[in-house]
């Protein structure tokens, strides 16, 4: 089935807008692909360095250009639960490559930080920029020009977007993304949130809170709520970078290992040395990017991707905008209820039918482009499957279930949980922002209340503890944008504002910072641009100004006369405390060079 005419029109608009970037990008990809990897003409010293630790037979193989060499980019470390399973992947990949008649080498490692560890800490101010650093680190690994194809081992928040930017930069090479899967289900997410709220109110102590958190985050694998990390996995599958069914299989299982072996062999099969050459930069196009946005809306995914997807697309010469994302949200129904948009976790989502069922539903109603290229070598309908362990430890696939195994978790296009995706762009005299309303009750989609102004999240927490947050208000938390302090996530606001809302107060948030995939039940206009550090209108709001946030009509306004607002001088903030400590001084060039949130908050694309 061809794509819905509305989706086709948005896609065509993106194609037209992207021509000044996409056409030169493809020319560079094709030029690089035409040169191929030429190990046989590398200087002898170059080549000797490149395969010094290989076996004698591998050295013979790599002396010419007839045997494909697979470059592994890994984000392994054993502190991150999601990335710890990657410790054993290189050996598994090398063995699978050998069985397929190829060679595999770890080309390089990239940093992988955990936002869960750094939330509310100074290190969080490095987090967003780590995405671009990851792309650069992967680029260093691949710069040796020893490889015919690549596999990328990454899962979490900034890691996958950074790796995709690298994959597009080296778009003349095939690229397969290999996930590690989610940890098994622990303490239910709603129970974890309940204990967090009790702790914030002083009703339980640190011991009880740590016990709850430890039962929730308890072993290897991705955190099980549907934040940015699991949104990443959804994106890689629906955009064709994963093999069908790969995203949400738990670590340490035979099926997980079988999928890794299969991905390795597929990465070797699609090199220029064979008949199925699939360079990543040509595989991904405007239709693939639109499919990613559709998946984000259908699952209620992370608001971080209003920045990441823009930067990821731009790395392939594709100009995606917030307006595109917002208009697609109006078309795409919400089909999944996964925490924080429901009580289920990603294991429940997978058990209900997972990605295969979701893709089959969207394809059935023309809400995805099926005529795309994927690493699997077929259109997207090949991803409408249920994956299982087959005979002799292989991967077996069968058609996705026609009926959801749990309608409370995965529904149908005919009977969605919500008729829109819930991610919208807001515009008005404060600039542009995004809001996620898939977990916000309809009666809270329009908020009008006086502003209370804070210059970091700790100020708001202090005001809460001192009982100063009374009545209805809109919390304006500014100087949290990428140029100010690296745009850390402001998760500590979620609990406080949620408590006040539960007490019956009308509250909302306006910020040039971000809230990520965990932004939930409190209406939050985030990623406000221009940011306060740039003198944006958010810096001109004064205490008590009435702010109107209207998620229905997509507007954000401070109700102040236009001439008066223009005449106000922008507020200033002392940001010296954000410039040093925990590595922040090393990222000063990133803060100085970054683009705005609506252009991906990237040092590469403005």
TrEMBL record:
[4Fe-4S] cluster binds at residues 156, 223. It catalyses: 6-phospho-D-gluconate = 2-dehydro-3-deoxy-6-phospho-D-gluconate + H2O. Signal peptide: none annotated. Pfam families: ILV_EDD_C, ILVD_EDD_N. Its cofactor is [4Fe-4S] cluster. GO terms for biological process: D-gluconate metabolic process; Entner-Doudoroff pathway through 6-phosphogluconate. One of its GO terms (cellular component) is cytosol. Keywords: 4Fe-4S, Carbohydrate metabolism, Gluconate utilization, Iron, Iron-sulfur, Lyase, Metal-binding. It comes from the Bacteria. One of its GO terms (molecular function) is phosphogluconate dehydratase activity. Its EC number is 4.2.1.12. Catalyzes the dehydration of 6-phospho-D-gluconate to 2-dehydro-3-deoxy-6-phospho-D-gluconate. NCBIfam families: edd. This is Phosphogluconate dehydratase. It comes from Pararhizobium polonicum. The lineage of its organism: Bacteria, Pseudomonadati, Pseudomonadota, Alphaproteobacteria, Hyphomicrobiales. The gene is edd.
